[in-house]
Design brief:
single chain, about 325 residues, alpha/beta, Spore Coat Polysaccharide Biosynthesis Protein SpsA, Chain A, about 45% helix, globular
């Protein structure tokens, strides 16, 4: 196969960020170069690996024309992806992690599914370190509801697009780059920007084997049972998983001013950002705030999208219940 060879298919740039990924890298590169979509270029930025990653990249450069660059200093996960995206030349761009395995038809199916939207994403298999299949799927266990369209509010509040499952038009990068310095999840940012452009599409197929192991930069957020989640939510803000989620929302609110500056938002979207920013700031406060309660009630469809009606009510009313309990025990 000649990388980037001419044909009826548009050129797809596969953007791969590596860091000490030698253990799984060959298997991933073989799955990329084994795609039924043949008109591809593979572009890699290595973030100062100290294992055999760079020698593997050199080998695949000689065999297939893979282009790679080794950073002068460590940039970190999101900044390394940002750098490699600037070097892509294809009409479409697909993000790749160093430790996954792509099904042969992945790029072909995403190309056929992108239609008129800016970004398309799929589901994925979950596999263990040896590549053995785990129960469920990435979407199924993550607790998010996959959505298509220009639903700006939903994509701001939920990370349902995982980078290794998506394909997007390269012109999206004119709005998306640079990635905000305070944001650590580049795929979340790309989905938010895409929702303000032509929109986002979901393909209900598992096109990647998403490997779970101890060295993952990111991993599947395993969804627990409804009773466990309800009990955890009612325990209050000392619950570690709940606090972690709250801290993520608060940290993400730092990007909202940049969203207002860089994206074309209507009045309703601007009001939504202001409301969600206020809600996020209140999450870790010990005292009860009525405004936060009403905001949670108003935006429950995007704050708790995968929850059933009962669970949504518990999530919304939890702080109110905690306040009542504290007064009774006082």
């Amino acid at each position: 196969m000649i990388e980037g060879s001419a044909g009826s298919q548009p050129l797809v740039s596969v953007a791969l960020a590596t860091y000490n990924g030698g253990r799984y890298l060959r298997e991933q590169l073989d799955s990329i170069y084994g795609q039924t979509c043949r008109n591809i270029e593979v572009v890699v930025c290595d973030d100062c690996s100290i294992d055999d990653t760079v020698s593997i990249l050199e080998e695949y450069g000689d065999r297939f024309g893979l282009r790679y660059e080794v950073n002068e200093c460590n940039l970190g996960f999101a900044r390394n992806f940002e750098k490699v995206l600037t070097q892509c030349r294809g009409e479409f761009v697909a993000l790749a992690d160093q430790d996954d395995i792509w099904l042969p038809q992945k790029l072909e199916m995403l190309l056929s599914g992108i239609k008129d939207v800016s970004l398309v994403y799929s589901d994925a298999f979950l596999v263990d370190e040896a590549g053995g299949e785990l129960p469920g799927s990435l979407i199924g266990v993550s607790g998010v509801r996959p959505l298509s369209g220009r639903h700006f509010d939903y994509f701001v509040c939920n990370t349902c697009v995982t980078g290794c499952t998506c394909l997007f038009r390269r012109d999206l990068l004119s709005r998306a780059l640079p990635i905000p310095s305070c944001e650590t999840y580049h795929d979340w940012w790309l989905a938010v920007v895409a929702s303000c452009e032509r929109g986002v599409g979901f393909i209900d197929l598992r096109l990647v084997k998403y490997r779970q192991h101890g060295a993952n930069e990111t991993g599947a957020n395993i969804k627990t049972g409804i009773i466990t989640r309800i009990i955890a939510h009612l325990r209050g803000d000392t619950d570690s998983e709940k606090r972690k989620y709250y801290e993520l929302l608060r940290a993400r609110a730092k990007t909202y001013p940049l969203i207002r500056e860089r994206l074309s938002l209507d009045v309703a979207q601007l009001q939504f950002l202001a409301d969600i920013g206020s809600y996020a700031e209140s999450l870790l406060e010990p005292r009860f705030r009525w405004r936060s309660f009403f905001l949670a009630l108003r935006y429950r469809h995007v704050l708790f999208p995968a929850a059933g009606a009962l669970e949504k009510c518990v999530f919304v009313f939890s702080k109110l219940i905690n306040k009542i309990v504290c007064k009774v025990n006082a």
